[in-house]
Amino acid sequence: MYFVYFIKSASNSKIYCGSTDKDSIIRLAEHNRHSNQWTKSNGPFELVYYEKYLCKHDAINREKVYKTGFGRLVRDAIIQAVSAKGGFRNSAEG
């Protein structure tokens, strides 16, 4: 399973989009442990959205779309819709 995910910085509200073959909750924990320079200077983060894919190629292509001008508009619309419904809840939260 592959994931495309959005995490939001609690310190400055910036959104990061990434893809991974790890569960999105595990990847969030890695970001919060400062796994790279960008996350080190922009954390802590909360997971706001994710999508599951069976194919790595599909996940990478979707991530690339979200990092384009139009894709950012789509990403922001998704985040706004999730927020309007009370926010993202993962299965671990119940």
Task: Name the features.
3 strands, three-stranded antiparallel beta sheet, 24% strand, GIY-YIG endonuclease
Describe what is shown at a glance.
The protein is of the alpha+beta class.
Task: Note down, in words, how this protein is organized.
- The protein has four helices and three strands, in the order ββααβαα.
- The protein is an alpha+beta fold and 94 residues long.
- It has a single domain (2-88), classed as 3-Layer(aba) Sandwich (GIY-YIG endonuclease), CATH 3.40.1440.
- The chain is globular, with a radius of gyration of 13 Å.
- The chain starts with a strand and ends in a 10-residue tail after the last helix.
- The mean pLDDT is 89.
Q: Helix content range of the residues, please?
A: 40-55%
- What is the class in the CATH system? Alpha Beta
Question: What is the topology, as strand order, of the major beta sheet?
Answer: 2-1-3
Please, how many domains? 1
Q: In DSSP terms, counting alpha (H) and pi (I) runs of 4 or more, how many helices?
A: 4
Write the layout of secondary structure elements.
Elements: E1 2-9, E2 15-20, H1 24-32, H2 37-42, E3 45-53, H3 56-66, H4 69-84
Antiparallel strand pairs: 1-2, 1-3
